[in-house]
Amino acid sequence: SLFLDRIDALNPELNAFITVDRDGALAAARAADERIAAGTAGALTGIPLAHKDVFCTEGVLTTCGSKMLSNFVSPYDAHVVSLLKAAGVVSLGKANMDEFAMGSSNESSYYGAVKNPWNTARVPGGSSGGSAAAVAARLAPIATGTDTGGSVRQPAAFCGITGIKPTYGLVSRYGMIAYASSLDQGGAFGASAEDCALLLSAMTGFDERDSTSLERPTEDYTAALAAPASAKPLEGLRIGLPREFFAEGMADDVRAAVEAALDHYRALGATTVEVSLPNAKLAIPAYYVIAPAECSSNLSRFDGVRYGHRAADYGDLADMYSKSRAEGFGAEVKRRILVGTYVLSHGYYDAYYLQAQRLRRLIAQDFQAALQQCDVIAGPTTPTTAWALGQMADDPVQMYLSDIYTIAVNLAGLPGLSHPVGFGTDGLPVGLQLIGDYFAEARLLNAAHRFQ
Ligand code: GLN
Which domain of life, per UniProt (predicted)? Predict the structure, then answer.
């Protein structure tokens, strides 16, 4: 109950949790105690955790940060939730998030903004802002998140913790409320790379209920971390630095922290080489066509009929749909649905959607070419440290631009990790992003582990 007490004390200010499941947590903790006493415990048995409220949890409110699902108690567990339950993890509750995972500041949540624990006048990042803030404030030692365009890595950077988004297809999307299905991927937050490795090892695994789940044996990501200590533990690791990520756009204090981190990597034995991702700058326009297109399709299921919010007063069926959706969705979600239906509509499909898919292919090819010259790619996770609450509230395009370093990774389906490397001049954390080839999670986690 240490963590539950911390949540009671600090959550009213931070707003990191939408739902705290005190009774469920205490029951799970008692069950974990029995497993420990019986000698059947695993590494995560009894470890408390916060689930992003995008994951369906049987019998527990699952809102996805939206008024639309403010009354939705899921009848089943997401695959990730059942895997972690089976491992004996104790779920403390559901972490706040941007509505339907759309956003980079956690301000689009129907349940109010989350505050950054380092400075409560700043945003925690998004869309998994509640998960990141909970781990940073030690309201939970580990947390789940999802990353469609940076939503694990960016809040990890803003909150000074470690977050990993694995290769697309490693974590089942079953029971993970869909935003943009070809980009959505579950990920892990922890105070260290080791904690992320433990959590991720328990989250991955083939699931026949997700058509894009990969049929691969699960890996123990902690195994690589156990290598014996040496003065140059990263000897031979070639780190590629994309010219385009180090061009203009990065704040000076972020650049200073990233350069210092790269010096530290070189001291650990790594070498650095310049690489190029010539189409990286096209990632934002491509993403902000593809993601809204998929969201407009995915969110059509919220119609006020089967579950979720239904308007109290309506005329005919069409009026019921439109009033329920008008009332249930917030402004950012409506904006994305409108953009998505527009780019998919007859006459615009070729000009926008198909064109964006072509860019996506080029971006993925750039990464493959760069990864011929290096083992991992490194750069800033975000162009700046966490901005002030409200600062970008009326400027969605400015907020979209802040995703510049993270979203190309989702378009390519590659794994990416962010780990803390220091602080900006405002005292807020700076994150370094490591990007690897498909299934290079262990390599990313090992590098981050040696760095710490
Ligand atoms: N900021 C991006 C968006 O708003 C990414 C969100 C995410 O990864 N879920 O779409």
Answer: Bacteria
